[in-house]
Amino acid sequence: MLDRKTYLTSELVTLLELPRSTVVDWLKNYSAYLEYENCGKRKAYTESALNILREISAWRNEGKSGVEIENLLSAKYGLRPEVASDPGTDNGKAAVSEKTAGEAGKVTPETNAVSGEKGKTAGASSAALAVRAEAELLPEKLADIDKLAACFREIEEERRRSSSKRWYIFISLGVLAVILLLAGYFAAYRFAAKLMEENRAVRLQMENAATEQLVLQQKQGETIAGMEAELDKRNRDYEQHLSTLQAELAEQRKAFAAEIKKLEANADTREKARVLMLRNEFARIQKEKLAELEKLSGELAASKRREEELRSSHRRELETLQNKLKNSEVELSKLKSSTSEKSGVSPAETADQTTNQASSANGRNVTASGNPVPENEAAGK
Predict the structure, then answer these.
(1) Contact status, residue 126 vs residue 115, Cβ threshold 8 Å
(2) Per residue in 7-33, pLDDT tens?
(3) For the residues 348-356, what does the mean pLDDT come to?
(4) How far apart are the C-alpha atoms of 152 and 94, rounded to whole Å?
(5) CA 375, CA 366: separation in Å to the nearest integer?
(6) Cα(126)–Cα(175) distance, rounded to whole angstroms?
(7) How many CB atoms lie within 10 A of CB 305?
(8) For labelling alongside 335, which of 67, 99, 185, 343 has CA 20 to 30 A away?
(9) What is the residue extent of each domain of the chain?
(10) pLDDT at 48
């Protein structure tokens, strides 16, 4: 026999460009019309089987049902699908067979008569042999008819069992689908509850962070206020000390002037020498006082510079804290909007929460001394 081109199931799937499950179902449902060869444990289908599968695919695309395709295949290729036989039909066939057998039994005497008429020369022995042969074949024919009826009954019983199995499979699939739906609903409920819990935890964490930042800002304000008060006190002390030194210097000048006037009244050389000494002493003291005044002035200027640097440093830290607070509030509002979308919170509730956050943020914009900061000044910081 010449080698014919055959195709495995995977090759049929590739050639037909259909899902594997669909091709496997067709190979099973229409196996009576498909020619194949056994290759070990697998089946290899011929070119004619591939053409039949293509015709089935075309009929399916036209919207034909499985029964219509079965009828078309049987009409085209001379095959018929198995039809479930009922007990009445089997009994009728058995009755017809018995009738035929009976007629065959009735024909035997006529045959004997005819043979007797035609074979007078053969004698009665040939007629007896013919009757005996027909009588021996009759039980075998009846046994064949009984076997055929039993075969039909087995086929009917097999179809009933397959029908009950099919119903059992359908019920099992329905129960499995219900179980899967319940499991999916339970999993979705658990996931939603877990998501809401995580959203609450994140919201609480963000609120705690905002509260900590507010407390830190208040502490920084109090620290800045204390340092400003201390610097103001130091400045007042420096100014008071400077004014005291200036007053003492003025009094010393007056005292030296009075002393000089007294010394000038005397024309004695000793007095002149004393006057010269006093002048030198006065110049020395005045120089020391002036040096002290310059030192105090330098310390005051340095103190003012340090105060200004400290104020600018604290102002920058305050601006940094305010920017961080604003960023955290923006992140909190974004997180709340996202959580409201996931958990189903209405936009009106989200807008109320955003308004409360804005009002609390405006309430936080205060100076270190407790006075409110204007809107434009807070934005500038």
Answers:
(1) yes
(2) 999 999 999 999 999 999 999 999 889
(3) 57
(4) 10
(5) 10
(6) 74
(7) 10
(8) 185
(9) 9-77, 87-175, 205-380
(10) 92
> Which tokens is 208 given?
């705690």
Q: CB-side exposure of 284: number of CA atoms within 13 Å?
A: 6
Helix and strand numbers (H, E) in the chain are 9, 2
pLDDT at 358 over 80: no
DSSP code per residue over 92-104:
HHHHHHHHHHHHH
Q: Find the helix or strand (DSSP H, E) in which 18 lies.
A: none
CB atoms within 10 A of CB 340: 17
User: What CA–CA distance (Å, rounded) separates 27 from 78?
Assistant: 18
- Residue 286 near residue 249, CB atoms below 8 Å: yes
53 within 8 A of 35, measured Cβ to Cβ: no
56, 12 contact by CB (below 8 A)? no
Cα–Cα distance, 204 to 100 (Å, whole number): 96
Contacts 24+ apart (CB under 8 A), 195-204: 195/342, 195/343, 196/343, 199/339, 199/342, 199/343, 202/335, 202/339, 203/332, 203/335, 203/336, 203/339
For residues 361 and 321, give the distance between their C-alpha atoms in angstroms, rounded to a whole number.
13
Yes or no: domain 9-77 corresponds to CATH 1.20.120: no
Strands (E), the chain: 36-39, 42-45
For residues 371 and 41, what is the distance between their CA atoms, to the nearest angstrom? Answer: 93
Band the pLDDT of 355: cuts 50, 70, 90. low
How many other C-beta atoms lie within 10 A of the C-beta of residue 70? 19
What distance in Å separates the CA atoms of residue 334 and residue 313, rounded to the nearest whole number? Answer: 32
CA dist 18 to 44, 50, 54, 57, 174, Å?
18, 13, 11, 9, 27
pLDDT of residue 159: 82
Q: Name the one residue in this structure whose structure tokens are 């009933």.
A: 160
d(CA 365, CA 377): 9
CA angle 141, 146, 150 (to 5 degrees): 145
User: How many whole angstroms separate alpha carbon 54 and alpha carbon 231?
Assistant: 98
Give me the residue label for tokens 């229409």: 30
Point out which residues pair with 7 in neighbouring strands: 45
pTM: 0.25
Say which amino acid occupies 350: T
